[in-house]
Amino acid sequence: MRLRIVHETVYAFDPPTTGAIQTLRLTPRGHDGQFVVNWRIEVDHDCRLAGVLDPFGNMVQSFTTEGKLDGLTITALGEVETHDMAGMVRGQSERFPIAVFLRDTPLTQSDAAIRSFAQVIDAAAPSDPLSRMHALMDGLHDEIVPGEASDEGAIATFAAKTGDPRAMAHVFIAAARHLGIPARYASGYLYHPDATEPAQAEHGWAEAFIEGVGWIGFDPSTNLCPTDSYVRLAIGLDRVAAAPVRGAAYGDWSAVPKVSIRVSEAGASK
């Protein structure tokens, strides 16, 4: 599938700020099943994008703008060709030892409720790790109702029994790590053929390391391993480490960005 993505982030500063610093993980990398046909990032103010690879191997661009700003718009857009790999992530270099992905973060900590749930699911599943992770995904899909996440942390999400895909991924990661399975967060995009309105946030899912197989994606929100409808953007121990846009501005300001993401089939009629 060839997907076209337009990801727009708009800040409105009130009062105006005197400058801003932004860090972007908005450039997908190619690997087996994902080929970046073309991609660019546009900023509506003069700046120079400096790019590096972060410790997770994500492409990171950063920029600074100086002078009075009452707004800032960042747009990432391009086309990506995808193939269904049944969730498997291959053809990408890994920089960290696998054991790093057993490390908890504030968003992926587990509590007694998550640990008990994971153990019950695990005890009823076949003994091989792949089946155990599929059972965990199935169980969380049934346990947590899709909805707004007031707190994306795993503990709060599991207690509320509701959350968006990013919050649900944190619960999966917390449970998998408790069971001794390395897990990490993946940010990206999901193509919904019937979508009529742009998404207001990026999609998120989990990846678990299966011995003898490698990294495989699991999305409790859809109860699917990522297909060719998914575009993988960045990875990290949690959403913060893989966030598409993070930044700060100078001065006394308050600005919550508005996000608009459209994913469509390239060449399809609008």
Q: What is the topology?
A:
Elements: E1 2-27, E2 34-43, E3 50-53, E4 59-82, E5 88-89, H1 112-124, H2 129-143, E6 145-146, H3 154-160, E7 162-163, H4 165-178, E8 183-190, E9 203-210, E10 214-218, E11 230-236, H5 239-242, E12 245-249, E13 258-265
Parallel strand pairs: 6-7
Antiparallel strand pairs: 1-4, 1-12, 1-13, 2-4, 3-4, 5-10, 8-9, 8-11, 9-10
Short structural description:
The chain is an alpha+beta fold and 270 residues long. Helices cover 20% and strands 41% of the residues.
From the structure above, extract its key features.
6-stranded antiparallel β-sheet, 5-stranded antiparallel β-sheet, about 270 residues, 5 helices, 13 strands, alpha+beta
Question: What does this 3D model show about the protein?
Answer:
It is globular, with a radius of gyration of 19 Å. The strands form three sheets. Strands 1, 2, 3, 4, 12 and 13 form a six-stranded antiparallel β-sheet that branches. Strands 5-10-9-8-11 form a five-stranded antiparallel β-sheet. The longest helix has 15 residues, at 129-143. It has helices spanning 112-124, 129-143, 154-160, 165-178, 239-242, and strands at 2-27, 34-43, 50-53, 59-82, 88-89, 145-146, 162-163, 183-190, 203-210, 214-218, 230-236, 245-249, 258-265. The protein is built from five helices and 13 strands. The model has no long low-confidence stretch (mean pLDDT 94). It starts with a strand and ends in a 5-residue tail after the last strand. α2 (129-143) packs across α4 (165-178) and α3 (154-160) packs across α4 (165-178). The protein has 270 residues and is α+β, with helices and mostly antiparallel strands.
